[in-house]
Amino acid sequence: MLSSLSASAAARKVTVNNLVDQKAEVFADPHRLVQMLTNLIDNAIKFNREGGTVTIRHESDRTDRIRVEDSGEGIPAHHLDRLFERFYRVDRARSRELGGTGLGLAIVKHLARAHGGEVIVESRFGDGSQFTIELPQNTTMKAAGPGTLNG
Questions:
Q1: CA separation for the pair 118, 76 (Å, rounded)
Q2: How far apart are CA 32 and CA 34, in angstroms?
Q3: Which of 26, 84, 110, 112 could potentially form a cystine with 117 if both were Cys, beta carbons 3.0 to 4.6 Å apart?
C-alpha cells in the first residue's frame, strides 16, 4: 500500500515513516483496512507541507489504534465537526487542485463504523493533524483472518 503512495510523497518531498511492527494484526477486512489507510495517508501527503512528514503508528490494548500523523498546516477548529461529511472540503480550491472529491474521510468513517470502530481527528491549525482509526479487538476472529498493517 505504501509503495503505491511513494510517488506522490516523493513529488511533494514528504517523508513517510511507517513505525508499525511488521507482525501487527488487527481484526478487519484486509481490503477495507487498506482502503481506510490509503485514504488517510494519501490525504496526509497531499495536505502536508513540502518537505513534511507522515508517521503511521499502531497501538494495542483494549482496542487497536492506527494513527496517521502529519506535519502539515493543521485544520482550523471550526472545520473539525464537519470533516467526515460526504463532499465536505476544508479548502475547496486546494482540494480540486490536488484531486479530491471530498469522499475519502467519509469513506474512512463509514468503514471504521462498519467494523464496530470509529475514526477520530485531532488537529490544531499550524501544528499538523492526527487521524486515529480505533477498532475493537476480537482475538478469536484474529486467528481466522486478520488484516495486516504492512501488506
A1: 21
A2: 5
A3: 112
- At residue 29, the 3 state secondary structure works out as coil
pTM: 0.84
Sequence-ordered alpha helix ranges (H) in 12-142: 30-46, 77-80, 92-98, 104-114, 139-142
Neighbours of 106 (CB within 10 A): 17
Assigned C-alpha cell, 105: 474521510
Find residue 129's DSSP bridge partners: 70, 123
Q: What is the tens place of the pLDDT at every residue in 109-138?
A: 999 999 999 999 999 888 999 999 999 987
Here the cell at position 134 is 480505533
Run of H or E including 54:
strand 53-60
